[in-house]
Every structure is written in structure tokens, then in C-alpha cells.
């Protein structure tokens, strides 16, 4: 009798798992074929981002793939110039400057003596739809206003201007899911936000793109064309940034748009970043990882958080779901009470395409936000953004809707 009951239970479990796989097959395993594409420009998809030290700046861009012609000398990099300042930088500018730069500077008011050239690193990436080259160059900069131009062998980009603030008082724009499939007014909304608020950087909470296709990367860079080259941005990995499958993995292009993920030495797995400022630490977590790696991230959080008084966690999947208690059960099982032990003041998350506030414990607040035009929960206000203010005394988070109406203020 016991064997019969055990057999029936086994059949029920197998049947339930099979049905779950059938119902969720497309969600978990199916990737739409990537349409074919050809990259024609030597300098496209320009992204300014920052590293573990907020004074570091990465410039990344997409290019036509390089050939292996032995008769061609390639030189790619970024030339930096302080705007209306005379200080010098500690960067070693030993690399020779391409002749195209010399010719451009003949008509510029600045001189090469007050500037420096940073050679770029290169990665060739081939995807289902095509191929492209990806370049990135890092420069540590002193506080002040800078401009830069990208050099791509015999081509030079326009000059872009950016500002490196002191770390004692900062303001960040925090955006959750974007994942535009088509034009949805994101460009107008983002530029309106920038006009309303003076910000120093942008954090994006995952699902930057709809799927790992060149078309969706084009969509993002078209939406942020006036912002991505001038305001440093760093994105968290979301499930839409992954190639689905049994052995799912992030879109390789993601790491060459945000190369801090390749360089960061303080992480257990690629996909996580730790950024330490004088008065606050940021932890950018990849919550798409399987259970064993999520548990490893728990240990990582405990290790890195020792001695830090202000901690902000940025993740895609929320620790506590706004939709149902079991929706993110794996997060709660793997991370457990880690947020009680690391004195985290604030958790910022997305994924659920809604706005919600959850108290994790007496000292930690979770804010779920949404910036996507896609809305699953009939929320008429739809899109939200957060302005995060940091100074030596406090952390303040202001939540706005897309009409720039202030909804909530949190101070820590």
C-alpha cells in the first residue's frame, strides 16, 4: 500500500513538473531568432560608464569588425581634454596619438599638451544575426568638466562633454525595466527627467533591452542617444538581458557596453559589481543566477559589507515580490536574512512592472519601480523613476511618476 501511495505521489510530481515545463517552455527556453544585421559605422553605440571608483570613466563603442590585414595599422582609443582647466592627469599617455588627432587639434583651441590619449581594448563578437567589434577604454579623471573624442583609425568622433563631481555630494537617476520593442516615448521622457534634475550618473535595474538582439540594442541607443555619451550609466543584469536555455547566459554584448563587469576583482561571479564611495557602498547583483550562485552572492555580500555604514543594493528581481509571496521564493530561500546582517538601508529593484514599497526589516526598505511602457498590472501612472541623493550625512530617495510628480521621499 505504501509503495502504491509513493508511486502515485511520484507520478503526480512528475506530471506537475511536466505540465509546468510545457506551460513555461517559451518563457524559459525559447529564443526568437535574431534578424540579420550589418554594422557599417566605425563609431556607434557610444556609452559612458563608471567603474568601482566613481572617478573612473569607461568609454565604449561598437564598430565594424576589424580585418586581419597585415598592411593596415589600427589605432583606436579615446582622447580626453579638461574643459577650461589646466591641471594634468596621472594617466600615462605613452601611446602614440594618431595623425587624425593632430589634424583635428589644429582647429581646436586646446593643445595636446593638456590632453591625453587612452588606447582602447577590442573584442570581436559574433551573434546569430551578425558580427561587430566592441571597444572600451578606461581613464581615471580628477573632478571637473571634461570633453572627449573617440579615435577609430582614420576617423574621429565629435567631442562629448561630461562632468566628474567630487564624491561628497552626488545625485543618481535610477531607472528600472526599459526593454523597448518599438518607439514608446522613452527618449522624450528621459530627456525631460534630465531637464528637471541635475544628476551625476544613472543606475538601471535590469531588462535594459527587450531581448539579446541587435535591433533592441539599437532601440536603447536611439532612446538614449543624447545621454549615453555624456552621463555615466551602469546597468544591472535582468532576465531579458539573458539568452534563454538550459545553460542560459548573459548577452555577451552587455559586458562590452558596461565593461566594469569584466574588470571588477571583488566579485564571485561575472555579473556582480561592488562600488564604494566615501559615504555609501553600492552592490549590483545578478539575480538571474541559479540557486547555488545566489547563495554564493549571499556570502559575498556579508564579506564586502563589513564596516560599511551605508549600503544600497541594486537588483533586478525584488527580494520580496509585490505580486505574491511565492513569486520570488528562490530569492528569499537563498538570501535568507542576509539583509538583517549587512545593515542595508535600501534595496532598489524592478522586474514586476509596478511601483511598490516593502519593509524588509526595521532598518531596510525595498522600492520596486518600473520605467517600461509595458505594464502588466493596470497601473494607470505606469512609469516611475527615482532620484537618489547622497551626501556625507544622509541618503535620500525621491520617487517620481512620469509626469514628474513627487510620490514618496525616503531618508536614511
Would you mind describing this structure in some detail?
This protein is an alpha+beta fold and 412 residues long. It folds into 2 domains: 44-163, Purple acid phosphatase-like, N-terminal (Immunoglobulin-like), CATH 2.60.40.380; 166-411, Purple Acid Phosphatase, chain A, domain 2 (4-Layer Sandwich). It is built from 9 helices and 23 strands. The protein has a 6-stranded mixed beta sheet with strand order 12-11-10-21-22-23, with no helix packed on it. Strands 15-16-17-18-20-19 form a 6-stranded mixed beta sheet, covered by helices on one side. Helix 7 (291-305) packs across helix 8. The radius of gyration is 23 Å and the shape is globular. It starts with a helix and ends with a strand. The model is unreliable at 86-95 and 101-111 (pLDDT under 50).
Ends: how far apart? 60 Å
Strand order of the largest sheet: 12-11-10-21-22-23
The coarse overall form would be: globular
Tell me what the CATH architecture of the largest domain is. Answer: 4-Layer Sandwich
CATH C-level name of the largest domain: Alpha Beta
- Helix-residue proportion: 10-25%
In total, the number of strands is 23
- What is the makeup of the main sheet? 6 strands, mixed
